[in-house]
Design goal:
The chain has 392 residues and is mostly helical. The protein has a single domain, classed as Growth Hormone, Chain: A (Up-down Bundle), CATH 1.20.1250. 83% of the residues lie in helices and 0% in strands. The radius of gyration is 20 Å and the shape is globular.
Length: 392
Amino acid sequence: MHQESMLEQIRALPGTVWILVLGLFVHRFGTFVVPFLTLYLTDLGYTTGRIGIVFAAMAVGGVIAMFLGGRLADLIGRSRTMAISLAGMAVAMILMWQADSFIAFTISSFLLGITSSMYHPAANSLLVDLVPEARRVTAFAVVRWAVNIGFAAGMAAGGILAEKNFAYLFLGDAISSIVFAGISLWMLPQGIRTSRAKSKWAPALRHILGNKPFIAYFVALGLSVSTFFIWGSSVAKFTTDLGYSKEIYGWIMAANGLLIAICELGISQITRKRNAQRVIALGFFLCGAGVWINGFAHSWVVILIALIVFTFGEMIALPVASAYMAALAPDEMRGRYTAVIGLTWNVGHGIAPWLGLTLYEHQPSLLWWGCLAAGIASAATMLLPLRTKNST
């Protein structure tokens, strides 16, 4: 049987996938604020505890958004849900820009959590709707390629803008959200939709709870995502504590997107042919190990090496993980399945920055070793269904 090459896989993707890729690129380039929010709030004099509350408010909003966005994606369509979410995100970003008190930051962060998280189930579900199963790893890799080019350019630009005036970050974020909302509303299809009765959460949750491979993936991802959010909180503070500027931190983080843009498509062509659970387990372990390496850092060079190890873990795991999750979800429940997976990211976003900063200020080695333990536990959990299957 003929094995499609990477170029053949990419050329076979539908044209609407490239429109979605364009929108995600624009939006990701303009996602300036959250990666720099810890530094912004620190500059304003807020304590670690209060910064943690701001992130927790965002996470609570994100949890609500996932349940709302998952059902809307299945009920009213993917692109409408994305447009509503992104337009609301622009409003929330402006409100955060104008915030002048801890309460105002907490409220605007909560609103940002709701609006910024609603579009994820819809966008991921639409991509799966458009692409046959055999090409989904490549499709997710292409999306991540574009998103991370945007991230690399955005982080570099964000570091420069943050040194000048944080207001530019808020305005850029709001503008990119509005542009993507327009692309979603006028240029993308609605995707698979279900009736009001079939779009309810109760039957979907019963199906999810009986899906053991999905539950194992949910737990493994929940353990692993904590390591992702450490980079935007604890490592950001660690970098500046070593005496480096926000611009240097921005350039280090830009390397993540640049590496993904250069390497991930090629890596995905190797990993898509391997057992998905083993590939995901390896990637999650490397993510934890990458953060752990920061514990040996006395200069930005070691932080960069840590980021490179982490990024290879991310490139190995996430395209395969997205396709693996999509294969576990029935078509008519895809939005709600994706929303449940999104809970891991939103809960991680709420807990990991606060917990990471608390551990960092108390005893940094606890943070770095904790991330390694999370990587090991995540990999072990991902492999559990394989061990159970082999033993039967």
